[in-house]
């Protein structure tokens, strides 16, 4: 156990789905897993383990932002010997071709965070996903008929709507090709690289910075089902 996770090591599967929201972890456990049980609830960060088509899978929330997912992913990779983390999160779209509800796969992540300073690198780190997970996720989305896009995402310490630099601060990142903005992917990918484990960030675009369109309240759960389904089927293959 750790200060942030009360689960026994045997309670956590080798592959973990990682939403930011604890209630999304609960949703996955109740609607997608069989025989799911709550294995940790420290600080109300909920973690469950159950079975999907016979495969043992865990789903554990990570909270919001790089520091939060950094703590939980590091402990899962090291203390709990997790091999693979698949983030199932939401994002703001930065390109007009990405529709509300589309899936965004983060091939790599850029950031305004100082997260990588801890590694004492003599340059700029651009951490990337595990390529085999990405290929599986693209194939799965295409087979299921879910629109998906793969490319760079921008992981910011600042929530775009509350950015003191202005509502249009995202445009410079969009100009450089960022597909979407979230807050967690960079720290997850850097932690996976440091611990030599595998990670993939699968995001649902819920709100477009370009068009202003977004999910209504009724879609904030159901609209995430395609992302969850893809992630679970990828988990079957790892």
TrEMBL record:
Keywords, ordered alphabetically: Glycosyltransferase, Transferase
Residue span(s) of domain Nucleoside phosphorylase: 15-211
EC number: 2.4.2.3
Listed Pfam families: PNP_UDP_1
KW Signal (keyword) present: no
GO molecular function, one term: purine-nucleoside phosphorylase activity
Superkingdom to which the source organism belongs: Bacteria
Gene designation: deoD
Protein name: Uridine phosphorylase
Organism placement in taxonomy: Bacteria, Pseudomonadati, Spirochaetota, Spirochaetia, Spirochaetales
Catalytic activity as recorded in UniProt: uridine + phosphate = alpha-D-ribose 1-phosphate + uracil
PANTHER family for this protein: FI09636P-RELATED, URIDINE PHOSPHORYLASE
């Amino acid at each position: 156990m750790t200060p942030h996770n009360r689960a026994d090591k045997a309670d956590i599967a080798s592959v973990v789905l990682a939403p930011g929201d604890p209630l999304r972890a609960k949703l996955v456990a109740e609607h997608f897993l069989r025989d799911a049980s709550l294995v940790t609830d420290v600080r109300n960060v909920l973690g469950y383990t159950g079975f999907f088509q016979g495969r043992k899978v865990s789903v554990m929330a990570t909270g919001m932002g790089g520091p939060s997912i950094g703590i939980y992913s590091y402990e899962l990779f090291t203390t709990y010997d997790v091999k693979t983390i698949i983030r199932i999160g939401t994002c703001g779209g930065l390109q007009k071709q990405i529709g509300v509800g589309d899936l965004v796969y983060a091939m790599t992540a850029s950031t305004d965070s100082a997260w990588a300073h801890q590694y004492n690198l003599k340059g700029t780190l651009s951490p990337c996903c595990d390529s085999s997970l990405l290929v599986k996720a693209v194939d799965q989305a295409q087979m299921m008929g879910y629109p998906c896009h793969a490319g760079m995402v921008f992981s910011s310490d600042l929530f775009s709507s509350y950015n003191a630099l202005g509502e249009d601060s995202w445009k410079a990142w969009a100009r450089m090709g960022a597909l979407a903005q979230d807050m967690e992917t960079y720290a997850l990918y850097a932690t996976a690289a440091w611990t030599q484990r595998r990670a993939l960030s699968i995001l649902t675009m819920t709100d477009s910075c370009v068009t202003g369109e977004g999910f209504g309240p009724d879609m904030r759960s159901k609209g995430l089902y395609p992302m969850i389904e893809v992630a679970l089927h990828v988990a079957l293959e790892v």
